Sequence to fold (487 residues):
Amino acid sequence: MSERPVVFRGGLVLTMDDSRTVLPGADVLVVDGRIAAVGPGLSVPDDAEVIDASGGIVMPGMIDTHRHLWQTAMRGYGTDWTLTQYFVWYYLESGKHFRPEDIYAGNLLGAIEAIDAGVTTTVDWSHGLQTPQHADAAVDALESVPGRFVLAYGNLQQGPWEWATSDGFRDFHRRRIDGGKLAGFQLAFDVTGDPAFPEKAAFEVARELGVAVTTHAGVWGATNDEGIRLMYENGFMTPGTVYVHAATLSSDSYHRIAATGGSVSVSTESEQSAGQGYPPTWALRRHGVPVSLSMDTSVWWSGDLFSAMRTTLSADRSREHLEAHGKQETVTHHHLRAEQVVEWATRGGAKALGLYAELGALTPGRRGDVVLIKNDASPAMFPILHPYGHVVFQAQRGDVHTVVVGGAVVKRDGRLVGAAASSDGRLAGADLRTARAKVAATVDHLRETLGEEAWQRGQNPDLPQAELFDNPYQYTDYDAGTAEWKH
Ligand SMILES: [Zn+2]
Fold:
């Protein structure tokens, strides 16, 4: 593969290197898929594509470590759900009705959405793989989109001790993962805390294949400290294990995660409304647990890491204030800074996936995954005074101007690059029109299969009665029309 060299000229460059070097008015040169140089006034090859980055921020591609891409086919459907409705819907109702082509449709749309938002690496936490054909469809979609994708294989219709030990799974792994095009492979399953620890068989498969496990841990009402204890006592809390949410765990469990080289994938927008527990960064920080960020699922929430950074920084600070006020104290200095959440969205994700030597920072030798945030038409993009703060609180996905993955331009001037730009067939799939048509067919299929009444009920959960406080004041005492008290 050889793409034309690309140079970003004159941007404010957040290198996210070990010293967090920030370079105003600097260039980033990508040659043969890798960062070749970073600095002001670089001399570049004659055939390099020049991207004017002036007035913009250049940063490493963002990394989402937990996203159920298949559910993108039902974007926004679960807006008013709690976890309770989610479990009913996905485990008992619609999840079963996803055919391989529906997995393909959701993955295709979600994968395109990711690169459009500057998320150059995404873990597809794919727990709708009911058959190897579903898994093939998931990989077909991921391989057709010019981003980096880690397939986290799961199947919520079976116990992990069943699907992970099946011949079909083994065969799939041999066919599609060994020597395949994906950026990585994980096993995705949860540990219920059953003292018999039936998940052990799946952990053994992961160990044998030499791949990491990603697991929803510390989810209120679903997984808890018992799962962590069983993993620990059986020797399965290994470096590279990703604990998703980890929002309702004890200090002891956090110590175990930190001591065994694991990390936590925090999905703040999810934790805030689904109810897994309070977004845990305020606790993780104090236990020295490494953090990455994720968006979980677009069946409820947004799918870009600007949202993740913003909500995570806000939730962490919110908790610090709340804890302090409970002690009649005032927070005068924030512990969590914007720089740290940008780090979690880039370097943090790369480290969680064991890809830090290749991704997560703009330094020579690393893969050329680069994002330019620039929008000259937006009043919110000027002035740029606090670069990290600007990324977290001012910018948004619509400001993602150019995205480069492995040296290939996949978005330019605010628009996804189509299949025509491909020089080697690798860029064949960033085709939004195809994705829309396939997702529309999936929505029709689910709606038809479930019936209109169930479809409507599914997205409109019962509204509980709210209890009103007794108000000792009477509105009749005050005449809003004349703005006068009546007595
Ligand atoms: Zn999840």
